Amino acid sequence: MSAYVGRFAPSPTGLLHAGSLVAALASWLDARAHSGRWFVRIEDVDTPRCVAGADQAILKQLALCGLHPDGPVLWQSQRDEVYQHALDQLIAQGLAYPCGCSRKDIESAQASPTQRHHAQVYPGTCRQGLQGKPARAWRLNVQAVLELHGMTPLVHWHDRRLGEQTQDVLQEVGDFVLRRADGLWAYQLAVVVDDAAQGITDVVRGQDLADNTARQIVLQRALGLPTPRYLHTPLVLGVNGEKLSKQNGAQALDLSDPLAALNEAAHALGLASSGPTLQEALNTWTSQWLEHAYQQQCLSGGGRLNGWRWERDSLYDHPSSAP
Q1: Within this chain, do residues 84 and 174 fall inside the same structural domain, yes or no?
Q2: φ, ψ at 249 (rounded to 5°)
Q3: In sequence order, what are the residues at sequence separation of 6 or more whose Cβ sits closer than 8 angstroms to the Cβ of residue 190?
Q4: In which band, very low, low, confident or very high, does the pLDDT at 138 lie, cut at 50, 70 and 90?
Q5: Do both 241 and 282 map to the same domain?
Q6: Is residue 189 a part of any domain in this protein?
Q7: What pLDDT sits at residue 131?
Q8: Integer Cα distance of 95 and 186 in angstroms
Q9: What is the pLDDT, as a whole number, of residue 275?
């Protein structure tokens, strides 16, 4: 794999909160510790949910925290032609098909109720044709991709924090959407295309996005794109025990004291408080991160650090007595 390239990809549905700063800091530190480049991508493909001016406000928040990208910012809303080209490529290979199913149709086809916070598994109703229904969306034919590329139904990948991961995309997700019924591009297609276009080698993001990884790997294979390394960071939880997010009313970051906000984010990652200046703190955390990455590589050949445990569900490890 080529020289390290990382990214932070916020959605401008509001300002950054404590949880998103943890992901931003982790991705920035990982890039700096590996002498790599760090980009920012504004994932504004879901335009109805975007808040006017939030993209520029997010960039200002990152700058206040000393987290400056190493190249131009990428806006997904400006990349319609690129996503269309990727979809056309999949259609030409017989790996994508139009779908006429509504949410109610998919819900009716479920064998059992869907768990809370889990998307409904698409049963492949339109895989062999629309059966007289008008086309609403475009889906990836997961089975066709697996067969074409000799992939097993169980997709395997290694997460640098969570270890070995697997998912049966066909059984647990089904043929997932590439272009939505409202004409907007689906997250999975946009992120896979953009990670490749920006040369991303390492994706560092929140653990709530880990479930997307197998789908993205399948789509990467379908488009002939490289698969980056993955690291999913611990989540910051709200008082209700759920992930802190804009959807459940997470408060925007108070950056009247950027160093204090960064120290909170560093603590969530298991790093010690630092200062007295912003730059000194970032330098100290980068050194700690680099030391940890070196220990990982030496003890486990670049994989997960064997015999270590995660304290406070943090990213930063501490040695245990395990062999």
Answers
A1: yes
A2: 85, 25
A3: 43, 45, 76, 79, 83
A4: very high
A5: yes
A6: no
A7: 85
A8: 16
A9: 87
* Amino acid 304: pLDDT: 33
Question: Which domain CATH number covers 274?
Answer: 3.40.50.620
Last residue of a domain, one of 146, 179, 212: 179
For residue 50 the two structure tokens come to 């975007």
Q: Does pTM top 0.70 for this prediction? A: yes
Contacts of 258-265 with C-beta under 8 Å, sequence gap 24+, read: 258/64, 258/65, 258/66, 261/18, 261/21, 261/65, 262/21, 262/25, 262/65, 262/66, 264/18, 264/21, 265/18, 265/21, 265/22, 265/24, 265/25
Please give the structure tokens belonging to residue 228.
Answer: 């980056």
Assess if residue 166 is contained within a domain: yes
Residue 193 lies in a domain: no
Residue 7 tokens read as 């990214």
Q: Which domain holds residue 153?
A: 80-179
pLDDT tens-digit map of 166-223: 999 999 999 999 999 999 999 999 999 999 999 999 999 999 999 999 999 999 999 9
Alpha carbon distance 245, 117 (integer Å)? 14
Count of domains forming the chain: 2
Q: Does the pLDDT at position 37 exceed 80?
A: yes
Distances in whole angstroms, Cα of residue 311 to Cα of each of 128, 151, 163, 270, 294: 49, 35, 15, 8, 19
